[in-house]
Amino acid sequence: MVEINLKHIYKEYDGNDNYSVSDFNLDIKDKEFIVFVGPSGCGKSTTLRMIAGLEDISKGDLVMDGKVINDLAPKDRDIAMVFQNYALYPNMTVFDNMGFGLSIKKMPKDEIKKRVDNAAEILGLTDFLQRKPAALSGGQRQRVALGRAIVRDAKLFLLDEPLSNLDAKLRVDMRTQIAQLHQRLQTNMIYVTHDQVEAMTMADRIVIMNDGKIQQVGTPDELYNKPTNKFVAGFMGSPSMNFFDAELKNGRVSNGRGLDVAVPEGRLKVLREKGYDGKKLTVGIRPEDIHTEQVALEAMPDAVVSAKVEVSEFLGTDSMLYSRTGETEFVAQVNARDYHKPGEEVEMAFEMSKAHFFDDDTELTIE
Amino acid sequence: MQANADLNNNTPAPRKSKKRKKKVNWTLTSVMMVLAIFAILGPLYITVVIALKDPSQMTNVLSLPKQIHWENFKNAWQMTNFPKMFLNTLFITVVNVIFTIFTNSMAAYVITRYRLKNKFFNMMYYYFISAMFIPFNVIMLPLVKEVSAFHMDNIIGITFLYIVFGLPQNIFLYSGFVKEIPTALEEAAEMDGAKPMQIFFKVIFPLMKPMHATVAILSFMWTWNDFLMPLVLLSNPDQQTLQLAQYVFQGQFSTQYNLAFASYVLVLLPVLIMYVFFQKYIIAGVTSGSVK
Question: Which of A83, A90, A152 minimises the CB distance to B207?
Answer without folding.
Answer: A90
